[in-house]
Structure formats: structure tokens, C-alpha cells
């Protein structure tokens, strides 16, 4: 039958007349959904991933693809000492203790076995060990050799399908069917030609990202970023929140999000924050340094947007440039003309448009020559969503859990607290991979 594209909604019924029934349906084939699918297939559980895009991508593909984890085989192979407790403490410290403690502990414990299992499926993780990201006491950022999110999601998709997971692309899920007791019966979805289908399921995992691409929800919940560039995926349409509101589910940490203070303009690309952690500085249009860059790139988004014109210049030297060129995102931005080089202070001032005498004294630490890239603050990914327990089961307002509805990754609350400054580097992919892993375990074994 034909239908027009509609907003996410809940259909209440006692049964669903679906053409097919699956043990587990997963909405979204990003890092969260794909990790869950791999874990389910390892346990012999059939599952179907429904992905709105023609190929899996989502926020994962737009990220740097770096996953923080403590106690992995990859860390040990590189001689890196780390611990689950230390990782959990770093997450909580970044949020000043405001992150959900049950999720912090659950994710910190689950991420290493999840990563080791993914490695067994052929994902060749290595740990970045030449610099520390803000807030991390140990080298724990895991990456594939390509160092891109696109490579990560591609490898996960390949592993999931090789393990026997079924993938239905170009399927936009817009209906959740539930009975009077709140048990999920199935879902309804649309194809690009407007045709619709129903699918029954025994359990449902929402792995469908956040709400950064929904302008009305951003204005409502994140007013400070209402006019900021959204550098995330269009699939971040807030479906999980809208379904949650209709179901009477709890929502949490809706003020938390991942910003980034290094979105290259006008080229529209991400510049690695490694440059800032290795001595680079951000200067405004007056040549002034306006914040502590080592505090974190997420809160830097707000600091940059507060500057004249809502932009700043990343300024750095030859050593930082060599490091930046090891990241494909920066290479692409440089090829697009983002990098400017000045032989002396006067030339740098000309690039920025300020008086040479006004340039921050910190630039003396790395030049000349000086390198500069113009950036703005951007919204990348929201960190609030459906309230979930430590098993990734969605909870109602009274704290009770829905029996067969789970959420993780961007669809659920994360571990970044309720503000931009609580985001610890890698929290998004931590929640996605660890959450997907835990959700699969819950659907496989059940919970007490």
C-alpha cells in the first residue's frame, strides 16, 4: 500500500498483522545496531537491522571512528596499562559526577569485551598512543588503521553480515506497535517509493541516533545551539524521543551533547583536536586566546561561537601540522584549501585580520612559520535520550522497565551528564558499542 512519509508515532493494538516475525528487530545500522547484531549472531540469535539509508552510515560514519576502552587486548599488545575503574573515574570526573553512575560502570566494564569480540571478527584495532585526548589518563582511543568513522561502520557492517545478520536498507521506521501493557509487538516502516510494511518482533532495540538533526527539538532542548552548524547525520531526527514521549517513557540528560570547536569553515570538515592537545591555540578575530583548549573540544564549540562572528582560528606550528596530517579528515580539509601558512607574525595577523601587536603571546611556543585554519563551533551529536537501566532496557517515568524495548547509543541517555562540558572524548562511540553489546546480552539472556 502507499503512504506519505510521516513523523514517528506509536500504534496501540492487541496484535500486529505483520508479514514477517523476527526474534530481534534493530532500528539503525550504525555502530550500536551493528555491534548488537554481531553479538546476537555470535549467540545464534536471528536479528534484522532496519537502516534508513541505502548503506549503513549514520553518526558513526561522520565521526573520527575512535572508541575509548580500558583493558583490551589491543592495549596490552601495545604495553598500555589501564583499568576499568580508572576509565569510569575519568568519565565521572569530566561530568563533575553528574553522569548516570549505573551506565558509567556498565559501559566501562562492557567496552573491553565488546572490542575484543569485534577484533575476533576481523576489526584490526590499534590504540592511538602519541597523544592523550582531553580528560583521559591513559591511551585508550581504539581505531582501525584507516582512522575514519566510515571505515569503522563499513567494517562493522561487513562483520555483521558475515555473521549472518540480516540488513534491510532504505527502510525508514516510523511506527512502534505496542499492546495495552506496553509490550512491543512490532514496527511499521516505509520504503523510498512510499510503500509500507509491518514487521513483528519479540524484542526491539532502538539504535537510531539522537535529535541533533531535528531543528525544533534542538531549539526546545538545546537553545544555545539553535543557530549552530549541525555537523551530524540527517538521521538524527529525534525519533526515539518522540516515541518515548508517546509511550510515557522516561527521558534523561536532554541538555547533554557533543559539540566541537574545530569545524573548518567554509570547507565544512572536522579538524582533529590533537593539534590543540599538542600545543596549538585558538585565537579570535582580534588575535586573542579566549579559553583553555585542553579542557575539551565539546565545550570549545560554545566558546568559539561566543567570539566575534562566531569563528576562530586554530593556530599551530610545524610539529602540530605533521601530527594533523596523520588524520584523513585534516588531509581532506587541507586539500580543500583550509590551511593558511604565515612566515612571520605580521603575515599571521594579516590572515586573521588583526593587529600584529595584539596576537596572543602563546604563539611564540611553536613559530614561525605559523599555520592557521578558520573554524566555528558545531553541534555533532546529542547525548540525551530515553532513560535506560544498566541492561539498556527503556524505563518508564516511575523507573519500571518495558519488558522488550531496549535502547542504546544516541537513542538513549549517554554518560556525558546534562551539559556540553560533560562530554569526554569518545563518549558517543563508547555508548554505541558498549550499549549495543549490553543490549544484545540482555535480549539473549534476559535480566533478573
From TrEMBL:
Alphabetized InterPro entries for the sequence: FAD-dep_OxRdtase_2_FAD-bd, FAD-oxidoreductase_2, FAD/NAD-bd_sf, Succ_DH/fumarate_Rdtase_cat_sf
One GO molecular-function entry: oxidoreductase activity
Keywords, ordered alphabetically: FAD, Flavoprotein, Oxidoreductase
Stored Pfam families: FAD_binding_2
Residue span, FAD-dependent oxidoreductase 2 FAD-binding domain: 24-418
Cofactor(s), names only, from the UniProt record: FAD
TM spans (from-to): none
Name of the protein this chain belongs to: FAD-dependent oxidoreductase
Species this protein is from: Caenimonas sedimenti
Top-level taxonomy: Bacteria, Pseudomonadati, Pseudomonadota, Betaproteobacteria, Burkholderiales
Amino acid at each position: 500500500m502507499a503512504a506519505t512519509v510521516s513523523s514517528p508515532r506509536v500504534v496501540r493494538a492487541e496484535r500486529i498483522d505483520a508479514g514477517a516475525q523476527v526474534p530481534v528487530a534493530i532500528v539503525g545500522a550504525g555502530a550500536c545496531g551493528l555491534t548488537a547484531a554481531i553479538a546476537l549472531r555470535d549467540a545464534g540469535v536471528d536479528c534484522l537491522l532496519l537502516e534508513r539509508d541505502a548503506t549503513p552510515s549514520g553518526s558513526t560514519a561522520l565521526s573520527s571512528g575512535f572508541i575509548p576502552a580500558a583493558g583490551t587486548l589491543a592495549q596490552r599488545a601495545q604495553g598500555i596499562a589501564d583499568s576499568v575503574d580508572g576509565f569510569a573515574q575519568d568519565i565521572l570526573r569530566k561530568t563533575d559526577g553528574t553522569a548516570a553512575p549505573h551506565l558509567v560502570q556498565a559501559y566501562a566494564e562492557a567496552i573491553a569485551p565488546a572490542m575484543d569480540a569485534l577484533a575476533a571478527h576481523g576489526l584490526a584495532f590499534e590504540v592511538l598512543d602519541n597523544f592523550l585526548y582531553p580528560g583521559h589518563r591513559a591511551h585508550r582511543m581504539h581505531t582501525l588503521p584507516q582512522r575514519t568513522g566510515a571505515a569503522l561502520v563499513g567494517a562493522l557492517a561487513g562483520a555483521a553480515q558475515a555473521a549472518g545478520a540480516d540488513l534491510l536498507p532504505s527502510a525508514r521506521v516510523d511506527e512502534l506497535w505496542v499492546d495495552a501493557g506496553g509490550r512491543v509487538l512490532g514496527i511499521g516502516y516505509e520504503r523510498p517509493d512510499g510503500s509500507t510494511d509491518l514487521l513483528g518482533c519479540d524484542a526491539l532495540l532502538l539504535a537510531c541516533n539522537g535529535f541533533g538533526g531535528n531543528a525544533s527539538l534542538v531549539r526546545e532542548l538545546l537553545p544555545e545551539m539553535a543557530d549552530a552548524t549541525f555537523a551530524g547525520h540527517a538521521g538524527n531526527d529525534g525519533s526515539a524521543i518522540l516515541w518515548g514521549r508517546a509511550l510515557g517513557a522516561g527521558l534523561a540528560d536532554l541538555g547533554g551533547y557533543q559539540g566541537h570547536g574545530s569545524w573548518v569553515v567554509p570547507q565544512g570538515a572536522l579538524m582533529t583536536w590533537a593539534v590543540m592537545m599538542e600545543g596549538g591555540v585558538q585565537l579570535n578575530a582580534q588575535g586573542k586566546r579566549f579559553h583553555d583548549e585542553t579542557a575539551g573540544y565539546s565545550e570549545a564549540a560554545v566558546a568559539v561561537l561566543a567570539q566575534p562572528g562566531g569563528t576562530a582560528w586554530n593556530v599551530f606550528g610545524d610539529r602540530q601540522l605533521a601530527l594533523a596530517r596523520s588524520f584523513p579528515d585534516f588531509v581532506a580539509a587541507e586539500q580543500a584549501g583550509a590551511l593558511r601558512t604565515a612566515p612571520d607574525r605580521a603575515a599571521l595577523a594579516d590572515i586573521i585580520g588583526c593587529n600584529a601587536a595584539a596576537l596572543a603571546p602563546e604563539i611564540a611556543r611553536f613559530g614561525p612559520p605559523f599555520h592557521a585554519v578558520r573554524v566555528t563551533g558545531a553541534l555533532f551529536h546529542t547525548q540525551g535520550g530515553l532513560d535506560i537501566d544498566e541492561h539498556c532496557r527503556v524505563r518508564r517515568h516511575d523507573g519500571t522497565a518495558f519488558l522488550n524495548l531496549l535502547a542504546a547509543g544516541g537513542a538513549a541517555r549517554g554518560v556525558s551528564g546534562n551539559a556540553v562540558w560533560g562530554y569526554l572524548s569518545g563518549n558517543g562511540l563508547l555508548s554505541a558499542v558498549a550499549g549495543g553489546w549490553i543490549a544484545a546480552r540482555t535480549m539473549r539472556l534476559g535480566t533478573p
